[in-house]
Amino acid sequence: MAARAMTDAPRYSAIETLRDGRRAEIRALRPDDRSGLEEAIGRSSAESLHRRFFAVRRNFSESEVAFFLNVDFVSHVALVAIADEGGRPAIVGGGRYIVVQPERAEVAFAVVDQYQGQGIGAALMRHLIALAREAGLKELIAEVLPENTPMLKVFKKSGLHMTTAREPGVVHVTLQLS
Ligand SMILES: CC(C)(COP(=O)(O)OP(=O)(O)OC[C@H]1O[C@@H](n2cnc3c(N)ncnc32)[C@H](O)[C@@H]1OP(=O)(O)O)[C@@H](O)C(=O)NCCC(=O)NCCS
To answer: Residue 163 — left, alpha, or beta (φ > 0 → left; ψ -120 to 50 → alpha)?
Structure first.
């Protein structure tokens, strides 16, 4: 079975407490998040961008931007983490899954450097797992650079059964949702 539609996924919202006690909202990506995403990319280090895109990408074509923003919440589900920065909400992280085969989706994450290590990656993973299960998916997959310990840790600690296949330069991760 392909992914089931989740009627409330586009309005998904949850509040998380970070390791330093601050709060962050995990919510569905919205079509008007373009400038927030661009700002988040602007403040990400070259290393983080490389780990996310396997290349240091700061500029994206209009069709790539449209792909990232026009999320249908069925075959493509995206969440963002929002922190309050002096009364202004800022996108400080994001996680998404894209259904690549029936019942199987690829996940990818990015958290702004100054917010890494606060549990945002793990929280995004937890919420994406809940949505993926609700959608009837069976497996999440990811491609991770071998040196990307934080991402591999988030997957290991997700509670899902994990298998990895190592190739030179990339680790293929498979996580069982059921
Ligand atoms: C991978 C990533 C999304 C994890 O998000 P995060 O918010 O830092 O994750 P968490 O805070 O939930 O922490 C994950 C674990 O990695 C550890 N960690 C986080 N940043 C770290 C760092 N810079 N160095 C070493 N360990 C780190 C954390 O301590 C935590 O381990 P613990 O639970 O044993 O303490 C984030 O580091 C990131 O955006 N990296 C760059 C982009 C990327 O790699 N994307 C993945 C592509 S699939």
So the answer is: beta
Give residue 24's identity as a one-letter amino acid code.
A
Cα-to-centroid distance, 108 and ligand 1 (Å): 12
Single pTM value for the model = 0.95
* Two tokens, residue 78: 């995206």
Distance from residue 1's CA to the centre of ligand 1 (Å): 32
User: What does the CA dihedral 128, 135, 49, 124 come to, rounded to 10 degrees?
Assistant: -10
Among 91, 148, 151, 156, the mutation site with the greatest number of ligand 1 atoms within 8 A of its Cβ is 151
| Mean pLDDT, the chain, whole residue set | 95
Distances (CA, A) of 105 to 27, 75, 138, 149: 19, 8, 9, 21
* CB-ligand 1 contact for 40 (6 Å cutoff): no
Residue 4 structure tokens: 């089931």
Q: How far is ligand 1, taken at its centre, from the CA of residue 117, in Å?
A: 5
Name the residue at shortest CA distance from atom 4 of ligand 1: 121
Q: What is the DSSP string of 20-64?
A: TS-EEEEEE--GGGHHHHHHHHHTS-HHHHHHHHSS------HHH
Residue 142, ligand 1, Cβ within 6 A: yes
Q: What is the pLDDT of residue 8?
A: 87
